[in-house]
Design goal:
This protein is an alpha+beta fold and 79 residues long. Helices cover 34% and strands 15% of the residues. The chain has three helices and four strands. The protein has a two-stranded antiparallel ribbon with strand order 1-2. It is globular, with a radius of gyration of 14 Å.
């Protein structure tokens, strides 16, 4: 639950900022949710379309070994 400072220099910190969130297709850190709530950001149109197509509800994520392996590979945790 590391708190991360606001990268734009604002007064807020994001509890659990480096934590990962996924909907099974996209993977992101928790802190962009904070920035989306506090700043006028633009997001990838493909991501916005995906979110809207799912009525803003995240689908069930199947926590498979393959998903964990992909996350480890992304962060260089494979050995």
């Amino acid at each position: 639950m590391e708190a991360t400072p606001d990268v734009f220099g604002g007064p807020h910190v994001t509890p659990g900022g480096p934590s990962l969130i996924t909907d099974g297709t996209w993977l992101w850190r928790a802190d962009p949710v904070h920035y989306a709530a506090h700043y006028p950001l633009r997001f990838d149109p493909e991501l916005v379309a995906f979110v809207r197509a799912h009525d803003y509800m995240p689908p069930e994520v199947d926590l498979t070994d393959e998903l964990y392996e992909q996350i480890d590979e992304y962060f260089g945790c494979t050995g």
